[in-house]
Design goal:
This protein has 4 domains: 52 residues, no CATH class; 101 residues, no CATH class; 112 residues, Signal recognition particle alu RNA binding heterodimer, srp9/1 (2-Layer Sandwich), CATH 3.30.720; 75 residues, Signal recognition particle alu RNA binding heterodimer, srp9/1 (2-Layer Sandwich). Helices cover 22% and strands 20% of the residues. The protein is built from 10 helices and 19 strands. The protein is α+β, with helices and mostly antiparallel strands. It starts with 12 loop residues before the first helix and ends in an 11-residue tail after the last strand.
Length: 410
């Protein structure tokens, strides 16, 4: 029997973006969107949830906050080596402030040339006027600057309300819309210095670390990297992005220390410009985010949060890599590895035994006995409990230390 229930119309992201562009500070409450535009609240929520690269939620308000930034190289003396394929805007920073009067500005004044027209279309901003686009980008840049230093690379003053549409500026020709993703053959294998880090198997390919991977040309399912570890970040439910090498190494150094529950991640370095820089800049700004190794998140006050994960070199029976050897610790004033004496009672269980049980069932309990006591180690809550007294200690599983502070980049 056919279902005659009428289909509920979806709200197209470009329509929602157009509406928010006309609201103060590019934001509106769900109730305001219902009253002003007739947008059904559940449908707005669904649209925002689906297109997180365009919208954000702040309490009951929806904010137009696309993942968009100015290309650092385009506004410096250096020429952006990615050209039309750049993932950030090639727009003059002074033009956004309505202060550039160059007839032929090398930084660009037009939105209808690459890569700008591609980015605008992909982020569903194509219904916005030139004036609205300019104000939006400056608002985003101010937000990045607030997350970073006062003299940050992307800091721009507020846009004057007198800015007018200038869709055609001299000095640049419209070279047409061309998809930059389709004119070159790109290896299907993902490397740690690429923009996105999504891989089928979330591990580092051992062959990529020690030599040549025979599957690189056809597509290796693991991440390729020069080191046996790497760190990535994403918005909840979003795409994994590769952190810069210096950030990944600093996280690794601290994560290998069982006493470290949190650490401050180094800011993105705009001078070390690579393919991941632009997207990470849009995601993280120039802020100093705090990593929490218990929740595996990055946080920035007051309420911004990203997820992080560590990718490690794959396990091979015939090869031992220090980076993929885990040590188990229990809290007793200091964090002590299993296998040492405690209170004159021999702790006979070893990290290797615990690791073996953990890999067999990560949500089970592992029971072990010392000379005096019997314990239950709960992998789900990461606690060790004395079966007799009921006293519990925290437990941590961390990689065996393999980096020194002097090994860090920079």
């Amino acid at each position: 029997m056919a279902d005659n229930t009428p289909e509920i119309p979806r709200i197209h992201p470009s329509i929602l973006a157009e509406s928010l562009a006309k609201k103060p500070h590019f934001r509106a409450s769900l109730l305001r969107l219902l009253e002003d535009d007739g947008f059904d609240i559940p449908l707005v929520r669904r649209c925002v949830q689906t297109f997180r690269q365009v919208f954000a939620v702040d309490g009951e308000a929806v904010v137009l906050k696309p993942k968009l930034a100015l290309c650092p190289m385009n506004n410096l003396d250096s020429k952006c080596r990615y050209g039309k394929k750049c993932r950030s805007l090639h727009i003059c920073a002074e033009y956004l402030k309505y202060e550039c009067d160059k007839v032929s500005c090398p930084c660009g004044h037009r939105w209808d040339t690459q890569p700008n027209n591609i980015l605008v279309r992909r982020l569903f901003l194509d219904r916005l006027s030139i004036r609205e686009l300019q104000k939006l980008v400056v608002s985003l840049q101010d937000d990045y600057a607030r997350k970073g230093t006062k003299s940050g690379l992307h800091r721009l003053p507020a846009v004057s309300s007198e800015i007018e549409d200038n869709s055609a500026q001299d000095g640049e020709e419209d070279e047409g819309i061309e998809d930059p993703s389709g004119d070159e053959t790109v290896s299907p294998t993902v490397w740690s210095h690429y923009i996105e880090g999504e891989v089928e198997i979330p591990e580092i390919c051992y062959d990529s670390v020690v030599g040549k991977c025979v599957r690189e040309e056809v597509g290796c399912p693991r991440l390729h990297a020069a080191l046996p570890f790497h760190w990535q970040t994403r918005e909840p439910g979003g795409v994994w992005y590769n952190l810069q090498s210096a950030q990944a190494e600093y996280l690794e150094l601290n994560y290998c220390d069982p006493s470290k529950e949190t650490c401050i991640v180094p800011k993105l370095d705009p001078t070390v410009y690579n393919e991941s820089e632009c997207d990470l800049l849009a995601l993280m700004g120039l802020a100093q985010w705090e990593a929490n190794f218990e929740s595996m998140t990055l946080t920035f006050p007051p309420d911004e949060e990203l997820q992080i994960r560590r990718l490690c070199v794959e396990h091979l029976k015939e090869v031992e890599q220090t980076a993929n050897v885990n040590t188990w610790y229990y809290e007793a004033q200091d964090w002590l590895p299993y296998g040492l004496d405690e209170d004159s009672s021999s702790n006979t269980v070893t990290s290797a035994e615990i690791e073996h049980a953990f890999l067999n069932d990560k949500y089970s309990r592992f029971h072990f006995t010392t000379e005096k006591h019997t314990y239950a180690l709960d992998f789900d809550t990461m606690t060790q409990t004395n079966d007799t007294t009921g006293y519990s200690r925290r437990v941590r599983r961390r990689p065996k230390p393999h980096l020194q502070r002097e090994d860090l980049l920079g």
